[in-house]
């Protein structure tokens, strides 16, 4: 009968050497045998004895060095002139059974550093599989664990993440184009969709996640495009202008360079408050009348606002002393503002905001929209909602995305804490609308304010962010700093690697050197959701997103394939992808 493996009694064949130097989180191992040194690989794992026989230090090999010195005349042994040194970064502690536990377990706390002369052993083969199995068992505390794939170092061991920690502490998925980033996101979305009471919103900027809507618990909506305004289908959503906060609305329509901008902002504020008051009075909502503010999501007539501003712009007053008529205090102050607002309202690209039907101007539309966006999975509703923003103009995209995010956050904030249900926001191509503060324009600055608040306070109210980006160096640092889980696929750009390494603990900084060498679909996973920083081969999702790179050379080499350019031109004119 084959003896049972024991990590606390590893076979001597795995012996590496002895400790010759100990730092705050690093250990150096002296290796006397060149044959043993050949088995040692950078990024491999070792376990080192400590003064406590029931505690082992687990480390990652960072560097392997072989140095030869000039022969010493006083020495007859050539080996004395060779210094084989292995640098190890401490990752955590492996504890033996005890304290109510029947099996060994791993913790990321480094409780005991080894003494000089302590023995070091390689984690290879069956011992590595046993160790990764302990990691998986320790992580998979829920009935439905989050699994991304398998460990590259132990293909038979499933890589399990702590789903609670992954979403509680926010997460990032980063990787260059073609690295398998969309596959990874699709894999995560599929597993969330498989949960009984899931709740997730995916911001899909290019329509690439449409194939996932074939899943029984995933539905897809589209923000209304120019072709949807007259006869919208059931999957089309409008985001009425009255949902915008005061500052968001001004960022959309106010030109800050206009010398009359302060007067315009003040008068617009008063006009909106008056219009909202009129709307609430018409609905006989007395309680809301007592407490509403300019930011309250209350429908109001933009025509009434324009009418009031027009009167101010044309107002003339009579001088009581002379009896002469003079221009009013706001006369001519809106000569540029009103045409700008009219242009926004008539632009069909902005129709999802302004070209509203009667039902989108009713008080109940907010209930309808919140139910569509935030209803968790039931027998009659899907928990994962993919929202296609591909037809939203890029110049207002940050405002529109932040509108949805802010609405979700506010609903969660005002929900009863006893019945509040957590929800995750998947922010695809986040670098397009969550840039660094210095590079943000007025619209992006407003969007950042909302997302930064969610990043810092979302956990209290059950709102999680999953940030997806191919350019982490361009992402907002405040949002990034709150992401305590990082799934990093291949990154070759130096600034992007640097941005990711800034999120890693000091003793894991060397991991960034692996990023350019990762294969397609391989990722380094670091953070609160995984006990051990791991190189993982992502499992292929069942429903693959439309993100595959076009094989130019193969396409050009194949037999003639006719592209229907006339339909493309027709769709371009109509601003619709329908081929009817």
TrEMBL record:
It comes from Brevibacillus centrosporus. Residues 148-407 form the Helicase HerA central domain. This is Helicase HerA central domain-containing protein. Pfam families: DUF87. InterPro entries: HerA-like, HerA_central, P-loop_NTPase.
């Amino acid at each position: 009968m084959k003896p049972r493996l024991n990590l606390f009694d590893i076979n001597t064949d795995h012996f590496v050497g002895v400790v010759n130097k100990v730092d705050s989180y690093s250990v150096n191992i002296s290796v006397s045998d060149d044959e043993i040194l050949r088995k040692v690989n950078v990024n491999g794992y070792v376990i080192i004895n400590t003064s406590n026989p029931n505690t082992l230090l687990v480390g990652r090999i960072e560097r392997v060095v072989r140095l030869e010195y000039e022969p010493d005349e006083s020495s007859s042994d050539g080996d004395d002139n060779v210094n084989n040194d292995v640098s190890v970064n401490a990752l955590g502690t492996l504890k033996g059974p005890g304290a109510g536990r029947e099996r060994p377990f791993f913790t990321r706390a480094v409780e005991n550093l080894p003494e000089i002369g302590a023995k070091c052993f390689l984690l290879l083969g069956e011992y590595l599989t046993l160790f990764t199995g302990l990691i998986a068992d320790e992580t998979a505390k829920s009935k439905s664990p989050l699994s991304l794939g398998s460990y590259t170092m132990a293909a038979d061991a499933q890589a399990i993440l702590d789903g609670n920690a992954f979403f509680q502490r926010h997460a990032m998925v980063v990787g260059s184009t073609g690295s398998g980033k969309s596959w990874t996101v699709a894999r995560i979305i599929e597993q969330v969709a498989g949960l009984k009471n899931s709740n997730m919103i995916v911001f899909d900027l290019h329509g690439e996640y449409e194939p996932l809507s074939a899943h029984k618990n995933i539905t897809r909506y589209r923000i209304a495009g120019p072709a949807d305004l007259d006869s919208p289908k059931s999957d089309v959503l409008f985001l009425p202008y009255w949902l915008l906060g005061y500052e968001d609305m001004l960022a959309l329509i106010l030109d800050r360079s206009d010398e009359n901008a302060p007067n315009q902002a003040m008068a617009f504020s008063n006009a909106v408050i008056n219009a909202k008051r009129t709307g609430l009075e018409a609905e006989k909502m007395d309680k809301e009348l007592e407490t509403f503010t300019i930011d309250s999501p209350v429908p109001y007539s933009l025509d009434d606002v324009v009418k009031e501003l027009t009167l101010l712009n044309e107002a003339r007053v009579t001088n009581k002393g002379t009896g002469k008529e003079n221009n009013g205090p706001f006369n001519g102050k809106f000569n540029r503002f009103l045409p700008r607002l009219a242009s926004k309202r008539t632009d069909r690209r902005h129709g999802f905001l302004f070209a509203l039907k009667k039902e989108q101007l009713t008080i109940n539309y907010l209930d309808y929209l919140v139910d569509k966006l935030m209803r968790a999975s039931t027998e009659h509703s899907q928990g994962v909602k993919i929202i296609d923003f591909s037809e939203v103009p890029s110049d207002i995209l940050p405002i529109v995305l932040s509108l949805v995010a802010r609405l979700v956050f506010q609903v969660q904030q005002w929900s009863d804490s006893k019945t509040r249900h957590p929800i995750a926001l998947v922010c695809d191509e986040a670098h397009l609308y969550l840039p660094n503060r210095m590079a943000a324009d007025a619209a992006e600055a407003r969007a950042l304010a909302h997302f930064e608040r969610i990043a810092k306070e979302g956990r209290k109210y059950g709102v999680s962010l999953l940030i997806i980006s191919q350019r982490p160096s361009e992402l907002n640092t405040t949002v990034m700093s709150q992401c305590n889980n990082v799934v990093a696929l291949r990154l070759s750009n130096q600034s992007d690697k640097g941005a990711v390494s800034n999120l890693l603990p000091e003793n894991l900084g060397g991991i960034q050197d692996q990023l350019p060498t990762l294969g397609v679909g391989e990722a380094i996973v670091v953070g609160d959701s995984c006990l051990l920083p791991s190189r993982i081969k992502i499992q292929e999702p069942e429903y693959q997103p439309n993100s595959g790179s076009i094989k130019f050379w193969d396409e050009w080499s194949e037999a003639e394939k006719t592209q229907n350019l006339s339909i493309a031109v027709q769709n371009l004119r109509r601003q619709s992808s329908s081929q009817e």
